[in-house]
């Protein structure tokens, strides 16, 4: 179901929730930007399976993303980290599950898991590469270096996401939280990584594998 949560001091955001008041309550931090689009179905399917295994879970919209009315270009990684802390408090989360770049905004001090965590530099590099290739196909010549220079000073649109200069700067050095228990893509079985596919897709077997890992191996505090 959908629920409101106080996403920022400026207003509320939506969250997908499976809440039956159980002991294990997992806050899900989504993959970021274009990878979020490709993993949305997978993420909610995993949450549904966790619900069936007796685990509450919550997927908040980050300010600037999905149904949020907040402008994305003003968002920062540190701002999202503060928003995540508010979500943990609001939902009473006991654990965190971070997908890919979501591990960069996971708060310290909470047990949990990170699926194939990625740092900001690698995520930014992939988005820049996609922009350069798209521009080349459209007959425009852009380089990674020139785009990055523009992004640092004025912000940049990458894959339909309008990132502000502070977000660009932060991504260049941001690292995933190291204390989360890492789950490798290979742990989910075959089919390849969904975030590498050209279009959003789903793999029910991988969602089932992730849910089984989480339900069967609680992360210690």
UniProtKB/TrEMBL annotation:
SUPFAM superfamilies: alpha/beta-Hydrolases. The lineage of its organism: Bacteria, Pseudomonadati, Pseudomonadota, Alphaproteobacteria, Sphingomonadales. This is Uncharacterized protein.
